[in-house]
Specification:
With 170 residues, this protein is an all-alpha fold. It has a domain of 114 residues. The protein contains six helices and no strands. Helix 4 crosses helix 6. The longest helix is centred in the middle third of the chain and has 28 residues. The radius of gyration is 18 Å and the shape is elongated. It starts with 6 loop residues before the first helix and ends in a 17-residue tail after the last helix.
Length: 170
């Protein structure tokens, strides 16, 4: 079966989901909740110990890029497969990247971030559990927000139902 993906719409949906994650988590961190701060971790992983005017754009660019890549996977493998509402599809899909992030990516970032390697920050560990309850909560909450926003944006991407036969011109 040939699937058609609206790449621009998927990239936009993924980047918007990543931005929504950051807005909500940044606000909750500002209110004092000890959530895992992915954008800070990514930004300082690339740039080291710098001010927020430097680590935030770098971390957000990396996060939006990863969000766009996951949205392309969603569009190709997930969106056309299930007959659920787009928001529910995005929400369910986001659980896969959440598990992979918690088990693989977050611990690996602890092994790559110079602030964690030199002892300035504590490495997050699996699901960021070394940060307390806010580590896993930040990862899961962020992915759920991402999935809801991504799924809500990536709707009717190619203009026709799945399974409709395409007749070539000629």
């Amino acid at each position: 079966m040939i699937r058609r993906v609206a790449f621009g719409k998927a990239i936009l949906a993924g980047a918007a989901g990543a931005l929504a994650w950051e807005v909500v988590v940044r606000a909750l961190i500002g209110l004092g909740l000890p959530l895992f701060d992915l954008v800070f971790t990514l930004g300082t992983m690339v740039l080291g110990q710098v001010g927020p005017w430097f680590w935030w754009p770098a971390g957000m660019a990396l996060h939006a890029t990863v969000g766009a890549i996951w949205a392309i996977f969603y569009a190709y493998f997930f969106w056309s497969t299930y007959d659920w509402s787009p928001t529910v599809q995005g929400l369910v899909f986001s659980l896969g990247p959440a598990v992979l992030a918690g088990l693989i990516m977050v611990p690996q970032m602890g092994l790559m971030n110079p602030l964690m390697l030199n002892g300035t920050l504590r490495p997050p560990g699996v699901f960021a559990t070394t940060l307390g309850w806010g580590g896993p909560a930040g990862i899961v909450l962020g992915h759920l927000i991402y999935g809801i926003v991504m799924g809500s944006i990536y709707v009717k991407p190619v203009g026709y139902r799945v399974g409709r036969r395409i007749v070539p011109y000629g």
